[in-house]
Write a structure and sequence with these properties.
615 residues; alpha/beta; 8-stranded antiparallel β-sheet; 19 helices; binds 2-deoxy-2-amino glucitol-6-phosphate
Length: 615
């Protein structure tokens, strides 16, 4: 949720921290702050509620020069987004500064203990409590900062990542994590830390993802990692294969628009090399090799767990997996999954989908499944993410960094990866002939060109968006694979345009939601070619008869649909199960252009954060 950056090395650290925060601001934007140990050895902290620009303003004319520092952008959990609650926080005597992402579950108990010992707190945050705790431990037991952090880690409960600096040790940062992401960057003469790779990529591609309960000590000369007992430990080391331009807007007004337009390339990348030398469909990581493949061949039930847009991708996959691999699939909201005691056996496969690979609810669901002996497949965009490391099988979506809070290219590539998984399972279970799998893959390889054709209609969609921008409430309806796209179209509109929107199964309208229709109310209907088109057309007539203005997403060449629609957005002809990868694109563009018409902050919509690392 929060963005964390830290640097120690030869460079003037403040501009570097602010630049890093601008890359990480998408993770949370309730407040921003920096802590720098200046050349005089003083700890300088500047922090402001609101967007990073407010911090920039506060830093203007304040020359703070030093080479070691921390920066933070916040998504508030404990305490409202104001200046005192902004990070960094200091210990009781103001010698050390701490930033954090996540939640300290036992902070109230620790706070009471510290208050009893005379500590006075200046904020309402759980973060300040841990800063005081580390400071108190350090004063009491002596030793270095790393020892104090190690002792504090044994007392803290929750899911979090922390980074600390101490004016007594001006060229050192200490970091740790538990169930929240923290990556380390190895650069020439410098060491860095961040909540995700986007914050480091301007400096290095040489990355280590910290594992739970490790302590990292960063100095300009390098990084040492130990476990909670002080023994040497190893993080997950990897090299990032994208560069800084991937995390920049490259001339687009917003990251969201750039990412919508990146979909042809992203889908192409997701599909690349999916057939191995023996002509078989391949996944990226198969832990346990042939034995795991054997287990997967005997799976008798699949649960798909995910949140938000990723869950909508899972809903699409239910249709493909059931149809191609002939396995029963249930799709679950990840935050509900483990609390309802699902029936999991060694023959159950849990497919966990997460762009970031760090969504707390999805990771918790995957961990629960593994603890019950189920096999776990991760579909994620982030190499080395917690979810990727938790899973038996990993399929990477290879979409490149997704910065906009509203997920777009992650969604289409998740569906493609899930289609690959469906074919992989079909191959293991022999529910499809090899040439049928090959035919489906060949059709999928056409998708990038087909998405390009949809994108060419952007000017017309932008025009339509201006027509619909005044609507108070938009309904999205669809059947079969059109249903998850209706839900996704509505979610996009809600989250970036703040327009009340809901998606419904078209056939359910007459059981209640149709009561919402009144004169001129917009309804977006998914009516591409396929076995449910006629049924959707009937549902369109029902809403039109009650005064709705209907915007239909239909298949190119379907001129008859115009008789039932007020407006039509066309997508090229495709296999029925592959339509979602095309039909979602005009809905992404529609939401984007409605949001910009309304003057919304598209990339950083209110109250949201890109990666939700708290339950
Ligand atoms: C998408 O537009 C949303 N911002 C959100 O629903 C997102 O898909 C959800 O939080 C899951 O994120 P993940 O894919 O990183 O797990």
């Amino acid at each position: 949720m929060c963005g964390i950056i830290g640097y120690t090395g030869p460079e003037d650290v403040l501009p570097l921290l602010v630049q890093g925060l601008s890359t990480l601001e998408y993770r949370g934007y309730d407040s921003a702050g920096v802590a720098v140990i200046d050349h005089a050895g003083e700890l300088q902290i500047v922090k402001r509620a609101g967007r990073l620009d407010r911090l920039r303003g506060a830093l203007e004319g304040r020359p703070i020069h030093g080479t070691t520092g921390l920066g933070h952008t916040r998504w508030a959990t404990h305490g409202e987004p104001n200046d005192p609650n902004a990070h960094p926080h200091t210990d009781a005597v103001g010698h050390l500064a701490l930033i954090h992402n996540g939640i300290f579950e036992n902070f109230a108990e620790l706070k009471a203990e510290l208050e009893a010992a005379g500590h006075v707190f200046r904020s309402e945050t759980d973060t300040e409590v841990i800063a005081h705790l580390i400071g108190a431990i350090r004063d009491e037991q002596g030793g270095d900062l790393a020892s104090a952090v190690r002792s504090a880690m044994k007392r803290i409960e929750g899911a979090f990542a922390i980074a600390v600096l101490d004016r007594h040790d001006p060229h050192t940062l200490v970091a740790s994590r538990r169930e929240a992401p923290l990556v380390l960057g190895h650069a020439e003469g410098a060491s860095l830390l961040a909540s995700d790779v986007a914050g480091l990529i301007a400096h290095t591609r040489d990355i280590s993802a910290m594992l739970d309960d490790q302590i990292a000590v960063l100095t300009p000369g390098g990084i040492t990692i130990t476990d909670l007992e002080g023994y040497p430990a190893e993080a997950h080391h990897y090299t990032v294969d994208w560069d800084i331009s991937a995390a920049e807007k490259q001339g687009y007004d917003h990251f969201m628009l750039k990412e919508i337009h990146e979909q042809p390339r992203a889908v192409h990348e997701t599909l690349l090399g999916r057939v191995n030398g023996e002509g078989r469909i391949a996944v990226d990581e198969l832990r346990g090799g042939a034995a795991v493949e054997g287990d997967l061949a005997h799976v008798d039930k699949i649960y798909i767990v995910a949140c938000g847009t990723s869950m909508h991708a899972g809903m699409v996959a239910k249709y493909t997996i059931e149809h191609w691999a002939r396995l029963p699939v249930e799709v679950e909201i990840a935050s509900e999954f483990r609390y309802r005691d699902p029936i999991l056996t060694p023959h159950t496969l849990v497919v966990a989908i997460s762009q970031s690979g760090e969504t707390a609810d999805t990771i918790a669901a995957a961990t629960h499944a593994r603890n019950q002996q189920a096999k776990v497949v991760a579909i994620t965009n982030v190499v080395g993410s917690t979810l990727a490391r938790e899973a038996d099988v990993v399929l990477y979506t290879r979409a490149g960094p997704e910065i906009a809070v509203a997920s777009t290219k992650a969604f289409t590539t998740q569906i493609v990866a899930l289609d690959v998984l469906a074919l992989y399972l079909a191959q293991l279970r022999r529910s499809l002939f090899p040439d049928e799998c090959g035919d489906h893959l060949a059709r999928m390889e056409m998708l990038p060109a087909l998405i390009e054709q949809v994108l060419e209609q952007e000017p017309a969609i932008a025009e339509l968006a201006r027509t619909f921008a005044g609507a108070e409430y938009v309904m999205f309806i669809g059947r079969h694979v059109g249903l998850p796209i209706a839900l996704e179209g509505a979610l996009k509109l809600k989250e970036i345009a703040y327009v009340h929107a809901e998606g419904f199964a078209a056939g359910e309208m007459k059981h209640g939601p149709i009561a919402l229709i009144d004169q001129g109310g917009p309804v977006v209907a998914l009516a591409t070619r396929g076995h449910v088109r006629g049924k959707v057309v009937s549902n369109i007539q029902e809403v039109k008869a009650r005064g709705a203005v209907v915007l239909v997403v239909a298949t190119e060449g379907d001129t008859e649909i115009k008789e039932h629609a007020d407006h039509v957005m066309y997508v090229p002809d495709a296999h029925e199960l592959l339509y979602p990868i095309l039909t979602v694109v005009p809905l992404q563009l529609l939401a984007y252009h409605i949001a910009t018409t309304l003057g919304r902050d598209v990339d950083m919509p209110r109250n949201l954060a890109k990666t939700v690392t708290v339950e």
